[in-house]
Amino acid sequence: SDTNMTERFDCNHCQESLFGKKYILREDSPYCVKCYENLYSNTCEECKKPIGADCKDLSYKERHWHETCFHCFQCKNPLVDKPFAAKEEHLLCTDCYSNEYSSKCNECKKTIMPGTRKMEYKGNSWHETCFICYRCQQPIGTKSFIPKDNQNFCVPCYEKQFAMQCVQCKKAITTGGVTYREQPWHKECFVCTGCKKQLSGQRFTSRDEFAYCLSCFCNLYAKKCAGCTNPISG
């Protein structure tokens, strides 16, 4: 007569029977706890022991810890479900990291916490909300600014406070102006009274305080040759 064969249920590695024992499935194959831990358990970074199947395995950047071993390197307080920062392989709570490594705000002198936005300029750091224009007191953020006398100014405030105004258009001169009769002009505003060509870098002359290119001046004011009627210049 046929004998009923009971299907075997063995550990995929050591082949011992798993009937009545605790086992773990991995990729649909059963393993006894001992084999599973030997083959697949991660080693804890802190205590260097395997992280068993009945333990929580906490991982960060391909490194692993027991739940009880996952704590701040400095103060040893647990980091589970808390923000932390990594420095030179060590994990630190935000308080310890701030005390040890965070920069101080140049304005309010308080610590700039990890993960918060900060502004940096010439080796100094600011909280984003502390990096403000000296004149209007508004945050500069990502806008252009101009430093002067250890203070930072947004461009409109700098122009109002320091920039010379063009005698022609009355707007601020921020780069490369021209001085004529001790008055400031934009290069593009300093033009020939006659033909309106820019005079910056050109030879020009003046009459009644008006500037002219040589061509216009000759046409307007130079004596004409009786023979050819062309202006006599020079």
Write the layout of secondary structure elements.
Layout: E1 23-26, E2 29-32, H1 33-40, E3 57-60, E4 63-66, E5 84-87, E6 90-93, H2 94-101, E7 118-121, E8 124-127, E9 145-148, E10 151-154, H3 155-161, E11 164-165, E12 172-173, E13 178-180, E14 183-185, E15 204-207, E16 210-213, H4 214-221
Antiparallel strand pairs: 1-2, 3-4, 5-6, 7-8, 9-10, 11-12, 13-14, 15-16
Subcellular location: Nucleus
Protein name: FHL2 protein
InterPro entries: LIM_FHL1/2/3/5_N (IPR056807), Znf_LIM (IPR001781)
Largest sheet: 2 strands, antiparallel
Considering the protein shown, what is the CATH homologous superfamily of the largest domain?
Cysteine Rich Protein
Count the beta strands.
16
- The ordered string of helix (H) and strand (E) elements is EEHEEEEHEEEEHEEEEEEH
Please tell me the total number of domains: 3
* Parts with pLDDT < 50 across at least 5 consecutive residues: none
Structural notes for this entry:
The protein is an alpha+beta fold and about 230 residues long. The protein folds into three domains: about 25-100, Cysteine Rich Protein, CATH 2.10.110; about 100-160, Cysteine Rich Protein (Ribbon); about 165-220, Cysteine Rich Protein (Ribbon), CATH 2.10.110.10. The protein contains four helices and 16 strands. The chain has helices at about 35-40, 95-100, 155-160, 215-220, and strands at about 25, 30, 55-60, 65, 85, 90-95, 120, 125, 145-150, 150-155, 165, 170-175, 180, 185, 205, 210-215. The strands form eight sheets. Strands 1-2 form a two-stranded antiparallel ribbon. Strands 3-4 form a two-stranded antiparallel ribbon. The chain has a two-stranded antiparallel ribbon with strand order 5-6. Strand 5 (about 85) and strand 6 (about 90-95) form a beta hairpin. It is elongated. The mean pLDDT is about 85.
